[in-house]
Specification:
The protein has 281 residues and is mainly α. The protein has one domain (4-277): CHAD domain, CATH 1.40.20. It has ten helices and no strands. Helix 1 (4-31) runs antiparallel to helix 2 (35-55) and helix 8 (172-194) packs across helix 9 (202-231). The longest helix is centred in the last third of the chain and has 40 residues, at 238-277. The protein starts with a helix and ends with a helix.
């Protein structure tokens, strides 16, 4: 563990560098919507939201990060809506029914709508929305290392509590919550490693990453299925509509089966790591 000056400096540096990345990416995206830039923006915001979540475990941290927390949340949701459409378009393009549905399923129209909504969102952002206040920087720089460490452990345990909720009865909503908690836990471990310690061992980290990826693949498939269901009426022929409906039946069953398997995988991971995190319940 670094001394408290080093911990504060490391956190402050990471916070400031990440906020700089957000401002830089927004500058690029105001000129042109780039899919990779949107993805990078979401990754940086995810890191920032976990940093703020650590600070918000402390009363003073909640007060000093309220405005920044709200601004990042709004931007993340907006970027996520555009990213979801971009992912769906890529999945549809890769499927065996060929290029025709890219024209008939109004993919271009959906992208334009999502892009406009995203641009409106970033245009409405205040110039100072993604800057850390002087009081936050000063408070962070002098914060005791042990208190920061305890905040990271407390946050890790909160994420774990979300993941372990009735793992044998996972439904679609709780699967989504589990994925979010897993990804934030992995990001938290990255941040902690910069401070000189880890909150996950190698096996726990590998398992968390694998689960988050599997749930992410399931989520992307679910989004594509919902999009096709909503736009199937745009297909110009009954034959093509029938072909897509037939594919949808298979996709829906695949999602149900995968959801059940994910529930079992989550339960197994929880059992393996519970002793490291919290007392057995």
């Amino acid at each position: 563990m670094k001394n408290h000056e080093a911990v504060g400096k490391s956190l402050s540096t990471l916070l400031m560098e990440s906020l700089h990345d957000v401002r830089h990416l927004l500058k690029l995206l105001r000129k042109k919507t780039d899919e990779q830039a949107v993805h990078r923006l979401r990754l940086v915001i995810k890191r920032l939201r976990v940093i703020l979540a650590v600070l918000r475990q402390m009363d003073e941290g909640r007060k000093k990060t309220h405005r920044l927390h709200r601004s990042l949340r709004n931007l993340f949701l907006c970027a996520g809506q555009l990213r979801d459409v971009q992912v769906v378009v890529g999945l549809i393009a890769s499927k065996p029914w060929g290029d025709v549905p890219l024209q008939i399923m109004d993919v271009e129209g959906s992208l334009k709508k999502a892009d406009k909504k995203f641009r409106d969102c970033i245009a409405a952002q205040h110039g100072n929305a993604f800057r850390a206040s002087k009081s936050l920087q000063k408070w962070l720089a002098i914060h005791p290392s042990e208190e920061v460490r305890q905040a990271t452990i407390q946050l890790r345990d909160k994420y774990f509590h979300v993941i372990e909720q009735k793992p044998s009865e996972h439904d679609e909503d709780s699967i989504h919550d589990t994925r979010t908690a897993l990804k934030r836990m992995v990001e938290l471990d990255k941040i902690c490693s910069m401070l000189g310690y880890n909150i996950l061992n190698a096996n726990e980290l590998q398992g968390a990453k694998a689960l988050a990826k599997d749930i992410g693949d399931w989520h992307d498939l679910q989004m594509m299925t919902q999009y096709l269901q909503s736009n199937i009426g745009l297909a110009p022929t009954h034959q093509l509509q029938h072909a897509i409906r037939k594919s949808l039946v298979l996709l829906e069953q695949q999602q149900v089966d995968t959801c059940q398997l994910l529930g079992k995988d989550i339960q197994e991971w929880v059992i393996k790591v519970r002793s490291s995190f919290l007392p057995a319940s």
